[in-house]
């Protein structure tokens, strides 16, 4: 992501120079070419071209009918941007520096369905507003998650949910029931339980079997880590004493 942002910044810097070169008269004269079948590398003017299937050195996957806008300062400096004829959105761009064309870079837009190719680095948190589908493995280096505070439990039923975070913690300050999570899908959860001064017995419900692992106590200050896994066959649980 950082590389993409830097590339856009570089393009914008170049475009500032191109704007100085484009006068009202020659901008209005951009017009368009029809059925451009030449070499995109050899475009030597500021012009809008309608790409035909015979064009060469365009971006991978460009189609007949797409548009190529060439912004040129001189023989050494230029920018080319390709727009999709179907969506009217930019799909690829490249810059010419020191007389050499760089590689075509895909443009990520806010609309339309896109395939983002090549490795990408996200330097910040990535948020998906809908289900994300990945055709390859996703490598997460040093991935962390905050533990969600589910408060104090002293009565009733506590039904943890992975929505908002799979790592959670709560205080046991009275007898309560810990029910199996009901959120759809397959997932694991980790819940840290700390006993308060009035800690009570925890009863489990909705599990395939009695929780495995260490017994729970009601001793003030004792801590336990509860591992919950939900799969197509049901929900299981393991308790680990932390003292």
Topology:
Layout: H1 2-21, H2 24-28, E1 33-36, E2 47-51, E3 67-72, E4 78-83, E5 90-97, E6 100-101, E7 105-106, E8 148-153, E9 157-158, E10 167-172, E11 176-179, E12 187-195, E13 202-205, E14 212-213, E15 223-231, E16 234-241
Parallel strand pairs: 1-2, 8-10, 9-11, 10-12, 11-13, 14-16
Antiparallel strand pairs: 2-3, 3-4, 4-5, 5-6, 5-7, 12-15, 15-16
Structure report:
It is a single chain. The chain is rod-shaped. It has 243 residues and is mostly beta strands. The chain has two domains: 2-106, no CATH class; 148-241. Strands 1, 2, 3, 4, 5, 6 and 7 form a seven-stranded mixed sheet that branches. Strands 8-10-12-15-16-14 form a six-stranded mixed sheet, with no helix packed on it. Strands 9-11-13 form a three-stranded parallel sheet, with no helix packed on it. Helix content is 10%, strand content 34%. The longest helix has 20 residues, at 2-21. It contains two helices and 16 strands.
State the total count of DSSP E strands. 16
Poorly predicted ranges: none
Q: State the oligomer.
A: single chain
Please tell me what the overall shape is.
Answer: rod-shaped
Element order: H for helix, E for strand: HHEEEEEEEEEEEEEEEE
What's the helix count? 2
Query: What is the CA-CA span between the terminal residues?
Result: 43 Å
Largest sheet: 7 strands, mixed
Structural domain tally: 2
Structural class based on helices, strands and sheet pairing? mainly beta
């Amino acid at each position: 992501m950082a590389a993409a942002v830097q590339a856009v910044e570089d393009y914008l810097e170049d475009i500032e120079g191109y704007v100085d070169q484009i006068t009202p008269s020659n901008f209005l004269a951009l017009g368009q070419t029809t059925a451009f079948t030449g070499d995109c590398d050899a475009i030597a003017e500021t012009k809008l071209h309608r790409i035909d299937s015979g064009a060469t050195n365009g971006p991978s996957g460009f189609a007949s009918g797409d548009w190529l806008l060439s912004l040129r300062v001189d023989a050494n400096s230029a920018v080319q941007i390709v727009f999709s004829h179907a969506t009217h959105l930019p799909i690829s761009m490249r810059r010419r520096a020191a007389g050499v064309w760089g590689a075509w870079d895909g443009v990520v837009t806010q609309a339309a369905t896109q395939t983002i190719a090549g490795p990408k680095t996200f330097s910040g948190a990535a948020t998906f507003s809908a289900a994300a589908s990945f055709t390859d493995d996703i490598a997460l280096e040093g991935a962390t998650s905050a533990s969600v505070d589910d408060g104090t439990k002293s009565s009733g039923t506590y039904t943890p949910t992975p929505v908002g975070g799979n790592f959670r913690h709560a205080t046991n300050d009275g007898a309560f029931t810990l029910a199996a999570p009901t959120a759809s899908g397959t997932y694991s959860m980790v819940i840290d339980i700390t006993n308060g001064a009035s800690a009570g017995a925890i009863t489990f419900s909705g599990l395939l079997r009695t929780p495995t692992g260490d017994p729970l106590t009601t001793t003030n200050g004792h801590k336990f880590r509860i591992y919950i896994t939900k799969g197509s066959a049901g929900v299981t649980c393991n308790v680990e004493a932390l003292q």
